[in-house]
Amino acid sequence: MAVVNAAAWRARFQRLLLPPICLLCGAAGAMGRDLCAGCAAALPRNAAACPGCALPLAAGQTGTCDDCRLQPRSFDRVFAPFRYEPPLDFLICGLKFAGRLSHARLLSELFAAALAERNAPLPDCIVPVPLHPLRLRERGFNQALELARPAARFLRRPVLANGLQRVRHTARQTELDARRRQLNPLGAFAIGHPLPGVRVALIDDVMTTGSTVRECARVLRAGGATDIEIWAVGRAGVILKPE
Prior knowledge:
Layout lengths: L1 H16 L19 H6 L23 H5 L6 E3 L2 E2 L4 H11 L2 H18 L6 E4 L4 H7 L3 H13 L8 E3 L11 H6 L5 E3 L7 E9 L3 H12 L4 E9 L8
C-alpha cells in the first residue's frame, strides 16, 4: 500500500508542476487528465455493440452480429469502450504514427477508467500484441505495450511483454484489402511465455477486421490460456441497419 500511495503522491506532485492540458484542443485538462471536459464528452463511446466482438451496432440494433453467430472464435470476448472515429482517431494516430507517447498515457487512462466502470473480473495478466523486430526498430516503440503499461499499473496486473512474439514480418494491415487482411497475420505469431490455465487480456490500440487478434488468440490458446479477452481502445466498423 505504501508503494501505491507513493506513486499516487508522485503523480499528484507532477500534476502540480505540469497542470494537465487537453491534447485535443489545448484547454485546461479535467479530472487530472490531458483532456478537457468538452473533448471528453465528444469521445465516441461504443455503447451499443456486439457482445462477442464489440462491433458497433447501428441505432436500434441489439444482439450478436452475424460473424459471431456463424464463425467460431479463438477468443472469448472483446472489450472496446470507444469507436474508432474522431476525435479518438487523432489520439491513436498521433501515438502510432507520430510517436506522441503522451497520447498513450491518456488513452490508457481512459481505457482503465472504462474497465473500472464495467466492474467485470480482471485477467491474470495483460499481453500486448507484439511488433516484429524490424517494425519495432522502424517505429521505435510498440504502441500496444505503451498502452498496456499504464493500464497495468492502475489495475495492478502484470504485463507479459514477451507473452507473444512476432516471428514473421508482414505487410501493414492498413495497406491491404479486406481479404488480404484476413490472411496476412496467419503464422506470424508464436508463444513467448507458457500460460497454462491463465486468464489473458490481449491488448491493442484498434480492432478492425479482427484478423490479427484472432491469430494472436489462437496462439495464446495453444499455449494454455483458458480465457482470452481482447482489449482495444477503439473498435472500427459498423453494422448497417437493414432497410
